[in-house]
Design a protein that fits this description.
The protein is α+β, with helices and mostly antiparallel strands. It has one domain. It is built from eight helices and 14 strands. The strands form four sheets. Strands 1, 4, 7, 8, 9, 10, 11 and 14 form an eight-stranded antiparallel beta sheet that branches. A two-stranded antiparallel sheet has the order 2-3. The chain has a two-stranded antiparallel sheet with strand order 5-6. Strand 2 and strand 3 (30-31) form a beta hairpin. Helix 3 (84-91) packs antiparallel against helix 4 (95-105). The longest helix is centred in the N-terminal third of the chain and has 14 residues, at 43-56. Residues 125-129 have low confidence and may be disordered.
């Protein structure tokens, strides 16, 4: 597979309806929002979904969620140690070879990078002769947080538990809890793929196509009680492929060429209520994909 030779910028527009797109654990799992009240989905959350989609495509993933583990390893250390070539590079203290093997093995390391920082496994009272491993890989794919086009209104409801958790537990009054959601919102996030970093990790043209496919199907197999099936939808993906490695324009200028405007009157209820405008950039036309 040929290494990526053209810089890529992209933007993704998503809609949320009666769902919690990304709960904040430090704020009672309420939907994340900026200081200005606009909805927010963290870049870490988006990368998790991209990893899941790549895994669904059959790609090997290093940072797997526990409920999606497909290789039986319970930790990143166990997964890394299972690779004989990686162990050999670690023993030889060859950081360059360690990074090369990791990138060849796992698609998410090639794409997003990874910090491999593991202790040697020695007990505290034993001599640490190898000193563990500390290798950093910078990935070519960068993802911005998703930010809502309009400020969000968070809706909350009280829920109860009407069964005992333990067999000997004495039944008392129903336990109260809360669920939070937003009624409707349009979010947008940007991203880029850097060719110079792609050369270092071996990120290929096919890897870029896999990322594009994952963006278009971001919420497949992602349903939960907070995000019921169909409540999260990819509306549109814009994909700018430059004609050179460095890019014809800066990523900031490319992303700025896409604007989303809310209707002047009335409360928007769907993506079609918004106006999307694309300022032309000489020699750079995006491919536009509808979500699936």
């Amino acid at each position: 597979m040929s290494t990526l030779s053209n810089k890529i910028d992209f933007a993704c527009i998503i809609s949320v309806k009666n769902a919690n797109p990304n709960g904040d654990p430090l704020n009672g799992n309420r939907p994340r929002e900026t200081n200005d009240g606009f909805g927010e989905i963290s870049d870490v959350c988006i990368k998790r979904k991209l990893r899941n989609r790549l895994q669904d495509m059959g790609e090997r993933i290093f940072v797997q969620s526990d409920d999606r583990c497909d290789d039986g390893f319970g930790s990143l250390r166990d997964r890394a140690e299972s690779n004989a070539a990686l162990k050999k590079a670690e023993k030889a203290k060859d950081r360059k070879q360690y990074a090369t093997v990791a990138c060849e093995t796992w698609a998410d390391v090639r794409a997003f990078g990874q910090v491999f920082a593991f202790k040697s496994g020695k007990k505290d009272d034993e001599k640490d002769s190898e000193g563990g491993v500390s290798v950093g890989v910078r990935g070519p794919v960068s993802i911005h947080p998703a930010i809502g086009v309009l400020p969000i209104e968070i809706e909350s409801m009280q829920i109860t538990k009407s069964v005992n958790s333990e067999p000997a537990e004495k039944r008392s009054s129903d336990t109260m809890g809360s669920k939070h959601r937003i009624g409707f919102g349009i979010y947008r996030f940007n991203g880029s793929i850097n060719c110079q970093l792609a050369e270092k990790t071996g990120f290929s043209e096919q890897d870029a196509e896999n990322i594009r496919e994952a963006l278009c199907t971001l919420f497949e197999n992602d349903a939960s009680s907070a995000r019921p099936e169909g409540s999260m939808e990819v509306c549109r993906v814009y994909w700018w492929k430059h004609n050179c490695k460095a890019g014809q324009y800066s990523s900031a200028k490319v992303h700025r060429s896409l604007q989303i405007e809310a209707p002047e009157t009335g409360e928007p209820k769907s993506f079609e209520d918004f106006t999307v405008t694309l300022s032309p950039l000489d020699g750079l036309e995006p491919a536009v994909y509808e979500g699936r």
